[in-house]
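Dear colleagues,

As part of the handover before I leave the project, I'm documenting each prediction I ran so the next person doesn't have to rerun anything. This entry is a single chain, and its sequence is reproduced below.
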Amino acid sequence: MADDDRSPEDDFAELMRQIFGASGTPDPDQLDQLRALGVDPAMMQGIMAQMQQAFRNAPAGGISWDLAKQQALHIANQSDKGVTAGQRGEFDQAFGLATLWLSEATTISELGSTPHALTRGQWVEATLPVWQELAEPVATSIADALTEALRSQAPEEMQQLVQGAGQVMRTLGGSMFATQLGQVLGQLSLQVVSGGDVGIPVMPAGEAAILPQNFADFGRDLEVPEDQLALYLSTRELAHARLFRHARWLRLHVIAQVTEFARGVHVDTDALQDLAGRLDPNDPQELREALESGALLPQHSPAQTSALARLENLLATIEGWVEVVTADAIGRLPSAGRIAEAVRRRRAVGGPAEKALGSLVGLELRPRRMREAAAMWRAVTDAVGVAARDALWDYPDLMPTSDDIDDPSALIARLQARARGEQAPRDEMDDALEALLRGDFESGGEDSGGEDSGDDDPDAGDAAGSGDGPQGPRPV
């Protein structure tokens, strides 16, 4: 059998044969060798049992996402009370009225699918594919690092045995991560109130949902009428889902930025080796705690810090728009202000499960600049109106930047000039880009002797200066 065709089961079986003999019973010579190396054979058998359990039904990549799903559903379903017909009816009414009010506050069209009430288990089922996509780079890094750390801890005499079980060890690390991720997602399912509650598009595109059981827990201490709270959260959820359905590129944009950050995550091998040296295979709690606390993930690199800043600005831009649109839609509710502040505080602080998820993947999905972004969207709305504001989501290049969040005056000036049919005021980016393009054209003309410079093409100058091409100034 070729090495590439070997499975974790093959590696495990070979290791068992080498240590315990072909019959599966301990080989005396191997046991003496282990004792001479200071390795307890009983402990080795415990490790083997842990490994065998870890890669049972594991996929070729060594990370069992089915295991994560099982763990999450186990926690979610333990206390899941289901959704009653009365709850479905209440939220159907809330979503219906929210749809009407929201259409007065935004030009972004309604959803194509009907919003629905979900149980905790249904939320896990619906969102797990996105969590898997976000966590896979980190899971792979941890699995690889655990394999290398265990190899480095083994004495020279055991390197051949360890090398033969490399895939088994990688599976152990990947399965441990998947188990921990499942536990964190299970805890998160007990807290989230709606599909957009965590700020990123974890629900399938164009779908909106409320979790009635968690909704009741959230509203218990707010001392506001339940129907007003349901209407507010339904409106907010619809605004979030509408935005991602309208700007189809936005979902990929958010996921791409999160995964870009995650791919830069590396495991602190020194901390992992220290942990591996004292790890009790019969009690892996210490490894689980290290995974959940983030102790194995080193400080962010400069590239990750930059990526995190971009992601935080993006999430704040989304959350700020949702907050302003929701406020405009439900302004007639007497308790709107109190509910908005409670939701804003909840999003800013986060719960224990969200913090555990942040430690596990090295990323906290907190819109730290949400208030500033909301103030920007409010200023834009007051200055140019709802339609011009919402048109900024039509294309990625139109989106407000971090500088616009700090000071929206330049963005407003461009939008107002465009509304009057005037040329938009130039900014530093436009000047720099024009200088770059002018330099390219001049050098190209000298190299070609002017034959192919485009001077004889009456459309060449218009194409270069129109700003419609991919290299033109940023459209507004």
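The beta strands are 116-117, 209-210. The chain has three domains: 72-361, 380-419, 428-465.

All the best with the project,
I.
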